[in-house]
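Aim 2 progress update. The chain analyzed this quarter is reproduced below.
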Amino acid sequence: MNTTTNVAVSPVPPVSSASSLDVALTSSAATPVRVAVIIGSNREGRFGPVVAEWVLRRVREHGGFEVDVVDLAEVDLPTSLSYSPSAEVAAELAKVSPKLAAADAFLVLTPEYNHSYPASLKNVIDWHGAEWQAKPVAFVSYGGLSGGLRAVEHLRPVLAELHAVTIRETVSFHNAGALFDDDGNHRDPQRADEAVRALLGQLEWWAWALRAAKEVRPYGE
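Predicted structure tokens:
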């Protein structure tokens, strides 16, 4: 015998009108995306600044972005998290937290250390919460044979836990030290330029779409 159980369903809050969404999308598309470019390594002798300068040139050439640089070598956050940080820790947070909060999107540069990403990057992620929510994150990685891709794949579930949206496309530099000349120029840039254009196009699209959606309905409501 079949039985049917009646389940009470809470009403879904009404979605704002289509015209409101259209206005928000139009406004968002016309406003530059504020992107925080995070240089994830703080290791002595790091290669990150070379990759960062190459990426930053492409971001500025792409257009449509306002850039904040967050260099983790310039931030000294303790690994012991606190809800009541000391004045010294608060001063370090002030170097990074406002940039993360103001960002519409993130571009994370990461090397690969022991098949994963640096502790400095995990630390700055863990010190923040709402700053990541409902924002897109793109990755540029570098390293040896793997090009840092294992670090990227470890970052994806961490940022998903913080309600960020990671971009499918990546840019990875395999055997990175041999790819750039002494002036920081890529020796064979065609494929890398194509890859970063695709990545930035996706990052910009997700940034303005999510920004517009949050204008119509705050995330989580």
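The first strand starts at residue 33 and ends at 39. The chain is about 40% helix and 20% strand. These observations will guide the mutagenesis experiments scheduled for the next reporting period.
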